[in-house]
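Whiteboard transcription, Tuesday session. T.W. wrote the structure tokens on the left side:
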């Protein structure tokens, strides 16, 4: 047995995990971007609040000089290089600055819109990244506005993001593990019917004649039904093969007994020996023909053959064979009629029926179609009602068939049965035998 190339369970879980990882990565990236934007906005609001606080304590003297009415409340502005800085400047330079700047200044730019708070980025006294908030304040006492800037180190934002990253990673790892376990359970549960199907198929190897049980899901039920159909078909073929062997054995008993008797007598009649050998040959040919018919019918699923065309070919051949009798073979088959099977099987069916009809016809034979039914009629003597029943009775052997209608009709009967049809014999309107091939 060929070794499985891959596991369906592993493939399903692997594909689901791949999509899960992509989905989690995309979701994590979106969450990270959204959180970073939210943290930066919150930080900018804090900076804007500091700008407004500075504006509230800013005092402009009549001479245009500026001072603070009270210290800024945040102690970080008083600690050198604390990471939080403020600065007031105009076109002439820095007017006031926080103690935290020590002897440095902020490289800030004026806002693009007067009176509006502008946010930006800058480098701090130690080169650290800063987030800035800036605003221009105009006063009647001054010809130029006062530029107020507040800056804070981005390290606070980065720490928030790093903590969020750790929390997000831990959450996604736990989520991925939980979803992977859930997918494994789900796939195992979903594939359980296949495991049961495999177990039942293994059991069929040990217990011939069993069938697959029902109760499978809708997606697998057709497969189980198809398996059962194949098993039934195989069982039918085996039964037919046994029947053929039994029939052949039964049919050969008599001629073999005659041959044994003739040979043991020491004065075997050559004519008797030849007759028995011929009888055995016909029996073997009959069983081989049936076996070939069954094999071809099993292969012919989904094929079709044109009835009128095949009938015309056989009629032309039989017309030449019986040219000395001037028998007219009328082909009245519908050109659109189709036989749901192999062309050679159709030729076997029509050939035997037409040959028998030509053998007993006086002047004419008619072959026609009526829906799925094929008729072959002749104007010969026909058969009696008792002979009809004997000729169509299931299981009739060659030596039990009516004279002239034995081997051919037996083959037709068996072959029609393989295609779900039947052979019916009746009296024809022409006066002879009417043979009907009826297919459902």
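and on the right, the sequence the group agreed on:
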């Amino acid at each position: 047995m060929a070794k499985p190339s891959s596991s369906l369970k592993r493939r399903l879980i692997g594909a689901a995990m791949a999509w899960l990882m992509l989905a989690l990565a995309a979701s994590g990236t979106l969450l990270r971007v959204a959180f970073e934007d939210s943290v930066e906005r919150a930080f900018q609001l804090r900076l804007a609040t500091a700008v407004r606080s500075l504006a509230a304590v800013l005092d402009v003297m009549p001479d245009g000089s500026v001072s603070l009415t009270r210290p800024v409340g945040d102690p970080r502005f008083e600690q050198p290089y604390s990471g939080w800085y403020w600065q007031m400047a105009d076109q002439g330079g820095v007017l006031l600055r926080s103690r935290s700047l020590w002897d440095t200044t902020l490289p800030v730019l004026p806002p693009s819109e007067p009176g509006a708070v502008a946010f930006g980025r800058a480098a701090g006294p130690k080169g650290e990244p800063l987030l800035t908030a800036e605003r221009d304040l105009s006063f009647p006492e001054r010809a130029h506005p006062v530029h107020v800037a507040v800056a804070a180190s981005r390290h606070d934002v980065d720490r928030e993001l790093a903590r969020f990253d750790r929390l997000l990673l831990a959450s996604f790892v736990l989520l991925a593990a939980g979803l992977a376990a859930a997918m494994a359970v789900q796939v195992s549960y979903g594939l359980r019917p296949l495991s049961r199907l495999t177990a039942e198929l293994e059991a069929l190897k040990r217990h011939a004649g069993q069938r697959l049980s029902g109760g499978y899901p809708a997606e697998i039920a057709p497969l189980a039904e198809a398996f059962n159909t194949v098993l039934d078909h195989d069982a039918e073929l085996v039964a037919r093969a046994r029947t053929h062997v039994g029939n052949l054995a039964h049919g050969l008993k008599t001629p073999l007994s005659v041959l044994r008797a003739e040979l043991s007598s020491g004065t075997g009649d050559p004519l008797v020996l030849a007759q028995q050998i011929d009888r055995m040959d016909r029996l073997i040919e009959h069983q081989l023909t049936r076996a070939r018919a069954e094999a071809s019918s099993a292969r012919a699923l989904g094929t079709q053959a044109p009835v009128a065309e095949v009938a015309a070919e056989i009629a032309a051949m039989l017309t030449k064979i019986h040219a000395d009798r001037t028998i007219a073979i009328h082909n009245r088959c519908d050109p659109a009629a189709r036989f749901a099977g192999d062309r050679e099987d159709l030729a076997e069916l029509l050939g035997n029926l037409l040959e028998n009809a030509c053998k007993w016809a006086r002047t004419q034979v008619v072959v026609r179609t009526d829906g799925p039914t094929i008729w072959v009629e002749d104007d010969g003597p026909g058969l009696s009602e008792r002979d009809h029943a004997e000729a169509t009775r299931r299981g009739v052997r060659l030596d039990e068939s009516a004279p002239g209608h034995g081997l051919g009709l037996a083959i037709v009967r068996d072959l029609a049965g393989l295609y779900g049809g039947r052979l019916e014999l009746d009296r024809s309107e022409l006066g002879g035998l009417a043979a009907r091939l009826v297919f459902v």
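Someone added at the bottom: The chain has eight helices and 14 strands.
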